[in-house]
Design brief:
By secondary structure, the chain is an alpha+beta fold. The chain has a single domain (4-90), classed as Metalloproteases ("zincins"), catalytic domain (Zincin-like, 2-Layer Sandwich). It contains five helices and five strands. Helix 1 crosses helix 2 (58-70) and helix 2 packs antiparallel against helix 3. The longest helix has 18 residues, at 5-22. The chain binds zinc ion. Zinc ion binds at residues 67, 71, 77, 112, 115-116.
Amino acid sequence: MPPPLHRREALCQKVGQWSRRLKVQPRIIRVQRMTRKWGSCSTAGIITLALDLVDQDACFQDFVIAHELLHMRTPNHVKLFKALMSLHVPDWRRHDVNRLRPKGRAQLISPVRLTHSG
Ligand SMILES: [Zn+2]
């Protein structure tokens, strides 16, 4: 069953708030079913978030959203990227560990590792 619309909207609003804060402008924000990642960011400015991120706690949502949005400024996980994460999400390292996806979704997955393939 899909989550209620308002939770999905709340997630998109959060993306809007973070975009202003991080001074980036995603062209499109998508919330869709994703099984292997929590989020992704394309060079074309498309932010995609996993639908079931709405079920996660707010801190983790912030972490994933800030992470993806910061990639619009810094494509890789370079030192600057980590510095920006620390600036905006001071406790991001707490989340930067493997987190179990809901049952039936195979293995432990790190949002960071799985955001990008290279
Ligand atoms: Zn990343």
